[in-house]
Amino acid sequence: MGAPIAIDDPADPRVAAFRDIRERDLVGRQGRFVVEGTVVLRMLAAAHGKGRFRAETILVLENRLAGLADILSDFPDDVPIYVASAAVIDAIAGFNMHRGVLAIGVRPEAGFDAQALIAGLPERALVLAGCGISNHDNAGSLFRNAAAFGADAVMLDATSCDPLYRKALRVSVGSVLAVPYVREGDMLDLLGRLDAAGFAVWGLSPRGEVEIGDIPVSPRMALVMGTEGEGLPPAVMSRFRTARIAQRPQLDSLNVAMAAGLALYRIAQLQGKI
Amino acid sequence: MGAPIAIDDPADPRVAAFRDIRERDLVGRQGRFVVEGTVVLRMLAAAHGKGRFRAETILVLENRLAGLADILSDFPDDVPIYVASAAVIDAIAGFNMHRGVLAIGVRPEAGFDAQALIAGLPERALVLAGCGISNHDNAGSLFRNAAAFGADAVMLDATSCDPLYRKALRVSVGSVLAVPYVREGDMLDLLGRLDAAGFAVWGLSPRGEVEIGDIPVSPRMALVMGTEGEGLPPAVMSRFRTARIAQRPQLDSLNVAMAAGLALYRIAQLQGKI
Prior knowledge:
The structure is a homodimer. By secondary structure, chain A is α/β, with parallel strands linked by helices. Helices cover 31% and strands 20% of the residues of chain A.
């Protein structure tokens, strides 16, 4: 952990990365992402040094510095830790930053590609795949559930939203930094690769053939969630086996993250992961 | 359904209830709530006339009027339906109202009280109770899950947030208007009443004694969720039986709505509700 550096001027160029963070986040900054709060910071600390994500800068509310010492000490000396008063931080960030800590993270220059990710999975593996997941809350919740139930990887197609977007990362309680993932390509192609690697692929849909409690266990299983609203594309529904979750009739189907959680819990139990 | 009334002036007093709806919602307007979008409007139409909730006013985007005819026709003639262009509606509501329809609902003057709600429950019943549920997303998701898995009622203590708040209602996909609920009093008192009415009360907690798959079935069951972060109060944990949901260690516990959904699904299956 480097020595904390006091910032008194909101215009200080050393904290330029945090300026008006809410607005700029909407545009995205090449290769960077925003970390808010202690829970996600702890996940960034765990990820830093493992080679995939790293911390670039940390900005701490002065009265939270002591309380955060155990997390901050996990970062190496070359990650600058800036400290400022609430008034200065609010002026920098452009909103009331009650969470007490912000950080800028850096994405890996070369992310996992799907083939490399699949090649690295263990013999007994559980993968969560998402097709057209466009809502950041749902994307974050999918990662949170994937982590909770021991999924080994998340695979999103190119039409899904960025899980490192500020809100998605926060809702994931930082799990996006912990569960290996890709976001690329076409879902049928991704699922074809999983199939070729011995995965039993199951699409989840209100029109699924099998109740989730009756899914047979396989050493390698992949669960595919469709976009909110429209659900899984017909091409996925027709090529792979499908499962459903019993619910009361004549209601909107379950939220996608909720449905994924129910199915992951069931499969994780079958596979002995939880 | 009454004849639609065109509104050309954003300052028209007939649509005053919709003015700057986002800002005013934060303060709350006595006895009223805001409905956004067709899914929730459909639930309001179903609730209207059943004596609990009713619609006061509806405001429709002019190019959506034809598409909404089937829902609007479910409202009686004395509910005024105002129609306006996107520019006029945005000027009234103070934001881009892409959902195409807004309505003002009215709460019942006398809500259910807990005793009356419990007295009206069937012999085979499932109740979801929430203690200190302070996040509107979570409150909405709890109702959505309660409806999906056939819960007969939701009971919130007085420290929980208002599930008719705009965002909670939207996240619930309108289920707040469909599942009978109370929000009052102290959780131990509410649970004592359920216990006295023959309910097997189960608190859900990461420190619960029994895995949810091992909860024995009872004709009347109540599931209690604690506040985000702190979980259930010790007084609830010590007085009632408790259940847990297996997950990977050393992670944040599951989101409260996710945990409730997993337990409701299991209990609803045991009770034959789904």
